[in-house]
Amino acid sequence: MKRALPPLNALRAFEAAGRLGSFKHAAAELHVTHGAVSQHVRALEDWLGAPLFERHNRRVVLTPAAHAYLEEIGPLFEQLAQATSRYGIPATISRTLSVSSIATFTLRWLVPRLARFHLEHPGVDVEVETSNVPLESLKGTHDVIIRGGPDTFYGYTMRPFLAEERVPVCSPALLERLPIEAPDDLRRHTLLHTSSLPRLWPDWLAKVNRPSLSPSATLTFDHFYLTLQAAIDGIGIAMGPTALVADDLAAGRLVMPFAEPRLPSRSYCAYVPLEKSADELVVLFCAWLEREGARGRTDTAS
After folding, report:
1. 95-163+266-301 and 165-264 share one CATH topology?
2. Which CATH class is domain 8-86?
3. What pLDDT, in 10s, does the model give residues 187-216?
4. 166 forms bridges with which residues in the sheet?
């Protein structure tokens, strides 16, 4: 005889929400969004043909029947976990997450933090492809695409996770050799440029009322990560994005000769195909990006 089993993902969401007394806490435990838990619970209510929770503004309360139901099914989840552990079967199936990300961002921000992600989620493999191709021209299928924004693209959801500004940066050894006390002192220095961002130095110099300042030399690179590496090596002064040089500033590899003014810049955003927006692994990774972005803001503030 065929067993009449409810949707197991919906049952799992109900068990977590009922046990924790909160959709929000259930979402955190299951690494999904609050909305995903709510949808699963509604799906189970539809399947059972009866309400499971009484909804009161920002809190939910189990109905008496749902409370009795939870008391019966709750131990079954624990038995399932114990049986799985005894037979040595992994509790989760390893899966690869495909990420397309901008090259400089990947090198200077994402890669140094991925070890933390793997420590938190050892069963998840991340495959990163670097590309500066605009999202609308990107070929191939990816779970998460990291680009500047915020922008709107048909067929994608968008989640900003890291804001930044641009400010002059250089090595401390360079400042010891050629001290800088005012913008006019830049005349003695080499200004480092990136060919794809030609307006950074002109815009900054305009902000300090030195639009016609002529430096000792200029040096232009085709990739931004080369420009930043040249600054670390003491070759000249670069317009550094605060998010991507935060680790170098904290470690003393770079310093800011001027804390102000700062040029506004676009944020980093995670773009997800609509068909993957409810995928638990995708939601988990995007939430991790947001936590890391917030961690950076906290570290900078402190």
Report:
1. yes
2. mainly alpha
3. 999 999 999 899 999 999 999 999 999 999
4. 241, 263
